[in-house]
Amino acid sequence: MTVDNADGTKTEYRVWNPFRSKLAAGILGGLDNIHIGPGKKVLYLGAASGTSVSHVADIVGPTGLVYAVEFSHRSGRDLINMAKKRTNVIPIIEDARHPHKYRMLVSMVDVVFADVAQPDQARIISMNAHMFLKQGGHIVISIKANCIDSTVDAATVFAREVKKLQEEKIKPREQLTLEPYERDHAMVVGEYRSQKKKEK
Ligand code: SAM
User: Whose CA is nearest to atom 15 of ligand 1?
Assistant: First the structure.
């Protein structure tokens, strides 16, 4: 929907469906801070065809950037088409397990957002954080319990994933489940602190 403003400019409002986007579900579910705002640089892992990426691109605006990584060529085609309309999106059709393959394309970022739904996602996120995330930057991840381990309850999977992140210098700051929008999913926000505290 486009609204005409009093000063002659137009503002476009877009519907962001929390049943189709985990980030929207996390925001509506009550995350305090997703650390994605105007001017921010975001590395988005698991971009799919770019629906949620387009919303992130709108949030960071013309002074921000979204590096959108997706390894499926089929989804990648839609992602590339979306990026033609949004010049602050850089589509990268690569496997996020091999961040060195796109290191020439990506600068240091403020936030790594990940929605890859893979059993080794903690490792994928950590590798990308070590390579591209600023000191004090944030990770925001969606954890789908049954993609990681379907033999234990979701809460156990979430706790294990958080522990793996802690071992990679990512301090958990917020966690919430994505009910009622997604079952057995959690969203975790963490802060990246790779340097040791100075010795006194
Ligand atoms: N974030 C998307 C959204 O809200 O529209 C949905 C993402 S979907 C749950 C997961 C995506 O991650 C799939 O498109 C899949 O192809 C991609 N993916 C999974 N593993 C990946 C990897 N190692 N590297 C890049 N993309 C990956």
Answer: 46
DSSP structural state of residue 151 = T
Residue 4 CA to ligand 1 center (angstroms) comes to 36
On whether the pTM is more than 0.90, the answer is yes
Task: Tell how far the Cα of 115 is from the centroid of ligand 1, in angstroms.
Answer: 6
pLDDT per position in the chain (200 positions), as tens? 888 999 999 888 889 999 999 999 999 999 999 999 999 999 999 999 999 999 999 999 999 999 999 999 999 999 999 999 999 999 999 999 999 999 999 999 999 999 999 999 999 999 999 999 999 999 999 999 999 999 999 999 999 999 999 999 999 999 999 999 999 999 999 999 876 555 55
176-179 CB contacts, 8 Å cutoff, 24+ apart: 176/26, 176/29, 176/30, 176/31, 177/29, 178/22, 178/25, 178/26, 178/29, 178/142, 179/29
Q: How far is the CA of 44 from the centre of ligand 1 (A)?
A: 9
Any residues with Cβ below 6 Å from ligand 1, and which?
A: 21-22, 46, 48, 51-52, 69-72, 75, 95-97, 115-118, 124
Give the contacts of 160 (CB within 8 A, at least 6 positions apart): 148, 149
Q: Which CATH architecture has domain 17-192?
A: 3-Layer(aba) Sandwich (3.40)
